[in-house]
Specification:
The complex is a heterodimer. Chain A is mainly α. Chain A contains five helices and two strands. Chain A has a two-stranded antiparallel ribbon with strand order 1-2. The longest helix of chain A has 30 residues. Chain A starts with a helix and ends in a 9-residue tail after the last helix. Chain B is mostly helical. Among the domains of chain B are: 247 residues, no CATH class; 254 residues, no CATH class. Chain B has 33 helices and two strands. In chain B, strands 1-2 form a two-stranded antiparallel sheet. In chain B, α26 packs parallel to α30. Classes of the chains: A mainly alpha, B mainly alpha. Chains A and B meet through α2, α4 and α5 of A and α29, α32 and α33 of B.
Chain lengths: 147, 769
């Protein structure tokens, strides 16, 4: 089911969608958005790429196994909580930088935590969907069994 | 904590001369130093001082790691660390070359830690934790030879019985803490009047008794103790005669000032103690296995201790303290000697052992000394003082004095027979060939028995000839701690020819008579022993089998593996609980807030409804998926209308991905067909409609109840100031309730790994086919 229009469009859509997802992630603290939504958008973008150009290219684009994203994401979230602990406060205490960066705003452990959520959501979604797509491409019966 | 850690430091088995040296000598340094430390405290405690210390553990609940050292604790601590030292040396010889000696020492030191913690605890929650730790380490030690099914079954039995009692004790301790208003022993000890007049007093006492009686092997919970002899002998000598089984006695003694001196307490203790004492003694002399003989005689001794605490007079408490020490000394010695005999001859069957006194002279001396103390035969031994005090306590008991004296007399007669069985029978007569050619045990195996048996002599010497020694006041403070009144201790082995002297003499003569005629008597009694077939052992087996039947049945009923029924159960239970609460609390009050509904909202609602109907009735999976997508997007639109952009965005993304996932799984599904019957579909439809209706009513009812949430204003006020974010939803997710989110993403990760594994598994199966 190769479609020239879809694959061409996807090549242009993917960077836009990924940028949008990061935009959602970063602005989440003050405006609608956040790690969860951002992660879903990024995952959807990569799935779209996989559907249009094949699973192999999507995996190549991602570069690492999506499962790795889950582990790194969970680790990031836990580390963001531990930072509070290391500074002598309760686990998960929010720590904030004093300077304000131009685009991102203030840096802080909640943002790091959100990055963790973002990565886990991408990892979980892609792990499941890629595995499903793999099964689909492997099964010899390519046609729909629908009535 | 130190013993458990130190066990890691025991020397590794090198190939040098260290290789041949018994590692027990090194490990024993730890309990030895503890013994010396505790011995150093005797001075202060004998003067009546109570040494306390406390470390906060869960301060918000009032649970602390407190220590409370008075006479009673210190007697126990000295027994635990002192006998522990000898047992560890002994174990090094007994298990020499055993590949898991290191593990054994870890278990043993873990037990020692737990036991010391138990007797020194000043906080009843800490006490309970240590109590359970002793049960656990006992489980590991009984099952040490885990390749034997018998050892495993015995370990489990001991754990189930003592662990069950432990649960009862926990309930009792919690009730006691609630009634007494503190978890601290020092406070509770002053609350005895409040506690005894409280309506919960009776439950507390019953729960405590259950805990103590299971631990200290009182009838009918005694069955685990003889079976625990499956453990290596050092364990039997240490846990199952000298220390752990005395934990129940310690508990009763420790809480006697709080709970004691009431009819229910005294009657239960006296009756249970007397029955256990008689039964243990009666069963002991009929055994042929040395360790089982000693195990039943231990049960008898434990019964005696409970009986003495039940009588509760000053003299009885004094007798209990002395007998506790005496018994630990001679029984520890006898157990270790029995193990040495087993180790050097290859058998513990007294019918196969004869004339060992020539080949094992040192063991023979140790056993003879210990057995003389046990029989209470000569005033030279501390055992005689113990026996004398027990008779005195029985004779002066406030009620049923003659009955008690008779029971004690009978028990002691049996005890004399037991002493003969272990000290005379294997050692005298002609040497008989044994499975292994008999020879004297090495130093490590006879040191413990000889020292413990010798201490029996030494203590009498101290009491008789050094009246200014610390021993007498020390014993007095111990007895005072139990009785909660001043107990004077003046002990003498010889106090002239009086009733007690004649009783002792009668015991000895009857015992010797019974020893010579024991075979005839055993034949005479054999019909009565058929009763054991319906004893507690059988009840235990039946209960265990019954439990398994119940477990199998309920698993079949609830865990049937049929997914639609699982869903039905979950949904109906939830709906039932919610519906019940809703109707009983608020009634059917759905309100009429229909004004202000706008046209485009109605349109979306109608679209959602139509899509739902389409999804249900459609005969094409693709159509169903499309309809479900429509429902999802419709909901997202509603979120947008009602000012929840975060929800709307997430919902949109989730819907998109769901449709993709469903489309991908389509390939793997079988041809669409109607598998369920019409009745089943009707039932499902009814359930679905009911639950849907219920949720609608719930939502409408919620709207009629004025919102009094303090959370919304809190988050609105603090979102920017505390968390530096204006998007409250996200601030809640990543800051205020970040721990919840962490849990959620962890669940997500686990689910993803599970799904991944399932898909890979399926693929592998397909490839194998």
């Amino acid at each position: 089911m190769h479609s020239m229009i879809l694959s061409t469009a996807t090549r242009y859509l993917l960077p836009l969608l990924l940028m949008f997802s990061i935009f959602l992630l970063l602005r989440g603290h003050n405006e609608p958005g956040g790690g969860f939504t951002g992660g879903l958008v990024a995952a959807a973008a990569l799935v779209l790429y996989g559907l249009a150009l094949g699973l192999r290219s999507a995996r190549q684009l991602l570069g690492i196994d999506p499962r790795m994203l889950i582990y790194v994401g969970l680790l990031t979230a836990v580390v963001s909580g531990l930072l509070g602990l290391l500074s002598g406060q309760v686990f998960m205490t929010g720590l904030w930088s004093t300077q304000t960066l131009p685009v991102i705003g203030k840096l802080g452990t909640p943002l790091l935590f959100d990055v963790g959520v973002y990565l886990v959501v991408i990892g979980v979604t892609l792990t499941i969907i890629f595995a499903l797509m793999e099964n689909e491409t492997d099964s010899k019966t390519g046609s729909l069994k629908e009535e | 904590m130190t013993p458990a850690i130190a066990s890691e430091q025991q020397p590794a088995n090198g190939k040098s001369w260290l290789h041949r040296l018994n590692p027990g000598w090194f490990v024993a340094l730890l309990p030895l130093s503890l013994t010396l430390f505790f011995a150093g405290l005797i001075c202060r405690v004998a003067a009546g001082e109570v040494i306390t210390g406390s470390y906060p553990w869960v301060p918000s609940l009032g649970v602390n790691l407190s220590f409370y050292i008075d006479g009673l604790s210190l007697v126990f601590a000295l027994l635990i660390s002192g006998i522990g030292t000898l047992v560890i040396i002994y174990a090094g010889g007994y298990l020499a070359g055993h590949p898991q000696l290191g593990r054994f020492y870890i278990y043993l030191l873990l037990f020692m830690t737990a036991m010391l913690g138990l007797v020194l605890s000043g906080n009843i929650i800490a006490l309970f934790v240590f109590w359970e730790l002793t049960s656990l380490s006992s489980y590991l030690l009984i099952g040490f030879n885990h390749s034997q099914p018998k050892a495993r079954a015995s370990a489990l039995q001991a754990l189930l019985i003592t662990g069950g009692g432990g649960l009862a004790l926990l309930a009792g301790l919690v009730l006691l803490g609630q009634v007494g208003g503190s978890w601290e022993l020092s406070t509770l000890l002053t609350q005895d009047i409040v506690i005894q007049n409280h309506p919960l007093y009776l439950p507390i006492v019953l729960l405590f008794l259950l805990g103590a009686f299971t631990k200290s092997a009182q009838f009918p919970f005694h069955i685990w103790l003889p079976n625990a002899m499956a453990a290596p002998t050092p364990v039997s000598a240490y846990l199952h005669s000298a220390t752990m089984v005395k934990a129940g006695i310690f508990l009763l003694a420790r809480f006697n000032p709080i709970l004691g001196n009431t009819p229910i307490w005294q009657c239960s203790l006296t009756a249970t103690g007397a029955v256990t004492m008689l039964l243990g003694a009666y069963l002991a002399w009929q055994q042929t296995d040395l360790k089982r003989i000693l195990a039943y005689s231990t049960i008898s001794a434990l019964g005696t201790l409970v009986l003495l605490l039940g009588v509760g007079t000053a003299i009885a408490v004094k007798a209990a303290v002395v007998f506790l020490i005496v018994h630990s000394l001679y029984k520890g010695a006898l157990f270790m000697a029995a193990g040495a005999i087993d180790h050097e001859t290859g058998t513990r069957d007294i019918n196969q052992l004869r004339g060992l006194r020539r080949v094992m002279p040192i063991t023979f001396v140790a056993v003879t000394l210990a057995a003389l103390s046990m029989a209470g035969a000569l005033p030279l031994f501390v055992g005689y003082i113990g026996k004398k005090l027990i008779y005195e306590a029985a004779l002066t008991a406030p009620s049923a004095a003659w009955l008690l004296t008779g029971s004690v007399l009978l028990t002691n007669t049996f005890t004399v027979v037991v002493a003969g069985l272990v000290a005379v029978r294997p050692f005298w007569g002609q040497l008989k060939p044994t499975p292994k050619p008999a020879h004297e045990a090495p130093l490590s195996l006879w040191l413990g028995p000889l020292l413990l048996a010798g201490l029996g002599l030494l203590l009498v010497g101290l009491l008789e000839f050094v009246p200014s020694s610390l021993l007498t006041p020390f014993l007095a403070t111990s007895a005072t701690a139990i009785a909660d009144e001043l107990v004077r201790v003046k002990l003498a082995a010889w106090s002239g020819v009086n009733a007690i002297f004649w009783l002792s003499l009668a015991t000895l003569l009857a015992g010797i008579g019974l020893y010579t005629g024991r075979n005839g008597l055993r034949r005479l009694l054999s019909p009565a022993n058929a009763l054991t077939a319906i004893g507690p052992e059988r009840i235990y087996e039946r209960t265990l089998a019954g439990l398994q039947i119940v477990a199998t049945g309920q698993t079949r009923l609830l865990q049937h593996g049929y997914l639609p029924l699982y869903l039905l159960t979950i949904v109906l239970t939830t709906a039932g609980l919610i519906g019940y609460t809703l109707l009983t609390r608020y009634g059917l009050n759905i309100g009429t807030h229909w004004s202000g509904v706008r046209m485009h909202e109605i349109t979306v609602a109608v679209v959602i409804l139509l899509a739902t109907i389409a999804a249900v009735v459609s005969k094409s999976r693709l159509a169903t998926i499309a309809a479900l997508g429509m429902i999802g997007y419709g909901l997202s639109l509603l979120f947008v209308f009602y000012g929840a952009p975060d929800l709307a965005m997430t919902q949109l993304a989730v819907e998109t991905l769901t449709v993709i996932i469903l489309a991908l799984t389509l390939y793997h599904l079988p041809r669409f067909s109607r598998l369920s019957s019409t009745a089943g579909r009707t039932r499902d439809a009814l359930v679905a409609l009911t639950v849907g209706g219920l949720v609608s009513v719930l939502v409408l009812t919620v709207l009629t109840v004025p919102m009094q949430s303090r959370l919304t204003p809190f988050f609105a006020e603090n979102s920017v100031t505390l968390a530096k974010g204006r998007n409250i939803v996200n601030v809640i997710l990543v800051d205020f309730r970040a721990l919840d989110t962490l849990g959620e993403i962890t669940v997500l990760a686990v689910a993803a790994i599970g799904i991944y594994a399932l898909l890979k598994q399926q693929k592998q199966n397909e490839q194998n086919e």
